């Protein structure tokens, strides 16, 4: 917010001009930028994230002091990671956070992958291996991107692979495209739809309808004990009409 001085030609400005709002505060003329309204989540995935977060906050508030202390100790393992940092397309968990943030972050990841929330954290568990994949770097795929994923060796609990996608071009952003259960046997992953912007809205469209599109793909293993692998390399692939 800034002050301005009325001139002899312009007196008592009020209202909005472009992105600026003119008003008075305690008799002093001031100018400020118009507030940008945040969009209320409306997609199924956004609403599900909100539902999970609300549920986890309630669970946290119902926990005991000793359980809070456990998660506070667990949070220390992530203190070296910058908040809101990404490793390629994949968002990180970390930063100087307390036990409540660690509890909600880890369990939001688990519940989003179809696992149950952890009431107590695991200490000393090894991270799961990064999945192997036969996805072609710089590959060109007709109508749909098909590839296999598998764990290079057995892990002590169930795992899934997250498939993150980002389309090149204006307004690009990464998003979670698929979650697939994974073990040492090969599992097929199919990416046949991508998000595109039409008439100011984000919609899902088949690759065969979009035509040629350049995509970045990245993979990450998530285990039901709350551990996750480092993300894979970023694959650069193209989808074209068949």
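Q: What amino acid sequence fits the structure above?
A:
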């Amino acid at each position: 917010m800034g002050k301005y001085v009325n001139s002899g030609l312009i007196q008592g400005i009020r209202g909005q001009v472009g992105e600026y709002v003119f008003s008075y505060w305690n008799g002093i003329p001031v100018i400020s930028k118009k507030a940008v309204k945040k969009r209320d989540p409306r997609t199924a995935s956004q609403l599900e994230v909100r539902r999970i977060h609300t549920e986890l906050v309630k669970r946290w508030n119902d926990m005991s002091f000793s359980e809070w202390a456990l998660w506070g100790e667990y949070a220390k393992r992530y203190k070296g990671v910058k908040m809101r940092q990404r490793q390629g397309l994949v968002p990180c968990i970390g930063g100087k956070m307390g036990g409540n943030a660690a509890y909600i972050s880890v369990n939001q990841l688990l519940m989003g992958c179809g696992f149950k929330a952890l009431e107590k954290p695991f200490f000393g568990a090894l991270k799961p291996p990064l999945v192997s994949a036969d996805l072609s770097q710089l590959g060109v795929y007709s109508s749909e991107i098909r590839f296999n994923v598998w764990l290079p060796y057995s892990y002590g609990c169930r795992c899934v692979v997250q498939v993150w996608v980002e389309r090149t071009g204006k307004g690009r952003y990464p998003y979670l495209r698929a979650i697939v259960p994974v073990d040492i046997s090969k599992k097929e992953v199919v990416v046949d739809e991508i998000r595109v912007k039409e008439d100011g809205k984000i919609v899902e469209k088949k690759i065969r309808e979009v035509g040629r599109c350049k995509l970045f793909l990245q993979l990450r293993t998530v285990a039901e004990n709350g551990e996750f692998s480092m993300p894979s390399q970023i694959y650069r692939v193209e989808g074209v009409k068949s």
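Q: And what stands out in the fold?
A: The CA atoms of residues 148 and 188 lie 4 Å apart.
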